[in-house]
Specification:
single chain, 206 residues, alpha+beta, 7-stranded antiparallel β-sheet, 5-stranded antiparallel β-sheet, 2 helices, 12 strands, 16% helix, globular, binds calcium ion
């Protein structure tokens, strides 16, 4: 009985290490952190959490702490639903004074295409516009054939300094993998004020 249990545990550990090695080959090393385990285990944990990005506090071009990304994460939650989370340096006001604010995830689902010259085929975002918050997926792929982006409303939440958005993989073209970043900007026609990571994209694979 004990031997069987040990065998199972050992097998799981091997599977875990193999899985981590697989992720290591695609992950960008400096993007992830773990803080609870030994150095060796920390490395393993970092690989398994390769969809997490930590970003510096205070590096935003906006003085508003709620436009300063400090943490972002993309995980699959339930069958076919992606959970996007962004943590900011300060809480988002219930009624921001700015007319337009965006907390954005850019998704590059096809490295071979660049709708309107940009790398990202999809945008997942929470937007403060016209006096209300909305959660949206923006499908930019129609731009490749002269069409207009398709905007779909999706569930979202704001809890203090944490923004969450939920999107079905179907609204994102059912990708088996993609690369992403998180960003903030005070309006769609002005510069971004913060990116996480500062440069490059984070791989996500089912
Ligand atoms: Ca930041």
């Amino acid at each position: 009985m004990y031997i069987n249990k040990l065998t199972v545990v050992a097998s799981l550990a091997i599977l875990s290490i193999l899985s981590c090695k697989k992720e290591l080959s695609t992950a960008s090393g400096s993007l992830v952190q773990g803080d609870r385990l030994t150095a060796f285990a920390k490395n393993l944990e970092a690989h398994t959490e390769s969809k997490v990005v930590h970003d510096a506090t205070g590096d935003s071009d906006s003085p508003a702490p709620y436009m300063d990304v400090v943490h972002a994460k993309v995980t699959e939650q339930g069958k076919g639903t992606l959970f996007f989370m962004m943590v900011l340096a300060g809480p988002i006001p219930e009624q921001p004074s700015a007319p337009d604010l965006l907390w954005i995830f850019h998704l590059d689902t096809d490295p071979a295409t660049a709708p309107r010259g940009l790398y990202n085929e999809y945008i997942v975002r929470v937007r403060w516009i016209s006096g209300a918050f909305v959660g949206q997926v923006v499908d930019r792929t129609p731009l490749l054939t002269g069409g207009a982006p398709i905007i779909t409303a999706v569930p979202f939440s704001i809890d203090g300094r944490t923004v969450k958005v939920f999107a079905h993989l179907g609204t994102l073209g059912n990708p088996s993998s993609f690369k992403w970043n998180a960003a903030t900007r005070p309006g769609v026609a002005v510069n971004y004020v913060d990116f996480a990571p500062d440069s490059g994209l984070v791989p996500w694979t089912r």
